[in-house]
Amino acid sequence: MRARSGLSIFCLVLTACGARSEIRGGLPDASIVDAGGDEPITTSSCASGVVQIATTGAQPDTIALDGDWVYWHDATGIFRAKKTGGPPETLAQPALYFWPDLAAFAVGDGHLFYGDGDAIVFQGTTIDKLPSPGFAAGPSHVFAWSRDVLPSPLFRYAFDGTGGITGGSFPHKTSTLAFQPVETICAAEDPAVECAGQLLSGLSATDLVVTANDVWFTSNDSTNGARVMHVAMPSLKTAPLADTTGAFAIAQDDTNLYFTDGLGLRVRRIEGKTGPVSDIASDSSFGPVDLVVDDTCVYWTASSRFDKTGSGVVMAGPKN
Asked: Which of the four, 15, 37, 176, 249, has the lowest number of CB atoms within 10 Å?
């Protein structure tokens, strides 16, 4: 999941897991068609192709998976729905930040962490204070940092909400985190990409994914524009990936990379993490924003291309 901040390519394009929360509600959605007659019920979101999981409010962005649930936020709050569709559930309606990070949140082992003004909220209860916190979930902890204060203090919480300030900090404006083994932190920042405090690239990054020896990030700088960049470690050789213009959010599995293309209004796959690049889905009415993957499907949020105040969607499509 990404917790981005600041303006992006989507500001231009769009203008022309399960949380154990007792809060319920949300918008009804009938976008997943039930199997008829004696046909088996579909258990995979994208078993029949590209499908709509839910309708959202305006300006949906960050998306996350936990167990059988898909989580997202939009201009009206934080929601979840079953991967196989059904009515969304309202989990929280915090004070909104600036788009595209309206309501920062993370999900860890079924627990919801989110920001509400200067409050860090765990399962509906304030556990800490931090100016406009952003969040990212690692393998065993949820991390929080300030989107307004530099250098930003770093907080780390176990999935049960225990923990707090670490003594670490981020010197640059941080958009999101990714994690190497044993929760070594890599940060997408403006104007830098760092892992364990080592500067890997001086290019501004919107989103990133990492392995033990590689970093891929979506750039947003004057030289390369919006596209996918690759950093090989330990040489730190940095190179753009071909045919990735318009890239904004990025995700990975063991084999491939996946990204949202805000210019072409597409969700795309990079075979073998080096290419070629192919389309998973495209829609001239909606611009894809953030994405995540599980074993079989890609899930993404998309906002109306023609009416930024209108409703958006949560979609799913086969990875291959």
From this structure: 37
Which among 98, 110, 87, 71 is positioned nearest to 26, based on CA atoms?
A: 87
Query: Could you tell me the CA-to-CA distances from 80 to 7, 26, 62 in Å, in that order?
Result: 25, 9, 12
Pick from 21-25, 40-44, 74-78, 194-198: least confident: 21-25
pLDDT-above-90 percentage for the chain: 71
CA geometry: angle 56, 3, 290, nearest 5 deg: 45
Could you give the CA distance from residue 79 to residue 242 in angstroms, rounded to a whole number? Answer: 35
CA 24 – CA 5 distance, rounded (Å): 28
What is residue 163's three-state secondary structure?
strand
